[in-house]
């Protein structure tokens, strides 16, 4: 029987929105890609008055989606200082057992990370193909947004970090398939480098069970790899969303997190499976500083 991927995305989106859309949000983050379209539909189908909510897009496509749905877009840099986004929804390219994600398959990731990390709650929605126990299981590369002038040196540094596919291919610039000759440009006018690494990436749980990450031998733990790539001069954003989330983010003196608190997957049999983020010991990759407590406002 042919599996209807679109139905799987739609079902996951409906469940995620039903369970997480807050009663009276002021700001809602809207991610990018094909699955987020169903999230916006599901939000509309709630039948609530959405006219006073600002929807924060994560790029051009996302903004058009918000506008075409008749919702009110508010750019990230127009958010009042110190205000948080109440919730952000987004898609993912691959999700592991700890809800670390690979994102950027559609060349959006920098603004997605900005929005996720400014949100009290970040929820991912995907279909069953994205559900894996470890990252780099099916999805072949880590997307990385880089400043064009630095692209060659970033790729050279990635090779030093062991970026290589099983067939021996190293990091490469993502090219426009048909409509554009040369590298594609992101919403920031940057390039995307796709960097394969030995598969799969270890989780913090693997380390606690005694596995040893040995980058020199080509085995990386998720957060360690994300941090090393982020440290390369010229890298704007790494398509690994990991680190503290939920209560553990608060404990680490950050609000928001790049790792979702929950992920919803539309399954092959039509059901929806949800995973909640486990608490884990972690090193902090990138954080959003804890804000001064604010006097609550009327929405
Ligand atoms: O660059 C694109 C974004 O990170 C997307 O959220 C991600 O690629 C998932 O996209 P889709 O919902 O189309 O699978």
TrEMBL record:
Pfam families: Rib_5-P_isom_A. It catalyses: aldehydo-D-ribose 5-phosphate = D-ribulose 5-phosphate. SUPFAM superfamilies: D-ribose-5-phosphate isomerase (RpiA), lid domain (SSF75445), NagB/RpiA/CoA transferase-like (SSF100950). One of its GO terms (cellular component) is cytoplasm. CDD domains: RPI_A (cd01398). It comes from the Eukaryota. One of its GO terms (biological process) is pentose-phosphate shunt, non-oxidative branch. InterPro entries: NagB/RpiA_transferase-like, Ribose5P_isomerase_type_A. Pathway: Carbohydrate degradation; pentose phosphate pathway; D-ribose 5-phosphate from D-ribulose 5-phosphate (non-oxidative stage): step 1/1. The keyword RNA-binding does not apply. The keyword Hydrolase does not apply. GO terms for molecular function: ribose-5-phosphate isomerase activity. Its EC number is 5.3.1.6. NCBIfam families: rpiA. Belongs to the ribose 5-phosphate isomerase family. This is Ribose-5-phosphate isomerase. It comes from Knufia fluminis. The lineage of its organism: Eukaryota, Fungi, Dikarya, Ascomycota, Pezizomycotina. The gene is RKI1.
């Amino acid at each position: 029987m042919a599996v209807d991927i679109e139905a799987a995305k739609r079902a996951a989106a409906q469940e995620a929105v039903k369970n997480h859309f807050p009663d009276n949000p002021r700001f809602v983050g809207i991610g990018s890609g094909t699955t987020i379209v169903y999230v916006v539909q599901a939000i509309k189908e709630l039948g609530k008055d959405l006219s006073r909510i600002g929807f924060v897009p994560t790029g051009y496509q996302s903004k058009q989606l918000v506008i075409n749905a008749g919702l009110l877009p508010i750019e990230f840099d127009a958010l009042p200082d110190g205000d948080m986004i109440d919730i952000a929804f987004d898609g993912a390219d691959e999700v592991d057992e700890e809800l670390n994600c690979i994102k950027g398959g559609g060349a959006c990731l920098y603004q997605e990370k900005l929005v996720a990390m400014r949100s009290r709650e970040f929820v991912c929605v995907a279909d069953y193909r994205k559900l894996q126990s470890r990252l780099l299981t099916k999805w072949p590369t880590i997307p990385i947004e880089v400043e064009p002038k630095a692209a060659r040196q970033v790729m050279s540094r990635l090779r030093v970090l062991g970026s290589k596919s099983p067939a021996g291919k190293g990091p490469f610039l993502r090219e426009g398939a048909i409509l554009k000759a040369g590298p594609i440009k992101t919403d920031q006018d940057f390039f995307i480098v796709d960097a394969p690494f030995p598969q799969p990436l270890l989780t913090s749980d693997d380390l606690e069970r005694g596995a040893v990450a040995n980058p020199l031998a080509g085995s990386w733990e998720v957060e360690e790899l994300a941090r090393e790539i982020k440290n390369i001069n010229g890298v704007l954003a790494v398509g690994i969303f990991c680190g503290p989330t939920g209560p553990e983010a608060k404990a680490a003196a950050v609000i928001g997190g790049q790792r979702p608190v929950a992920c919803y997957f539309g399954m092959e049999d039509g059901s929806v499976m949800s995973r909640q983020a486990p608490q884990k010991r972690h090193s902090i990759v990138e954080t959003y500083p804890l804000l001064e407590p604010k006097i609550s406002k009327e929405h």
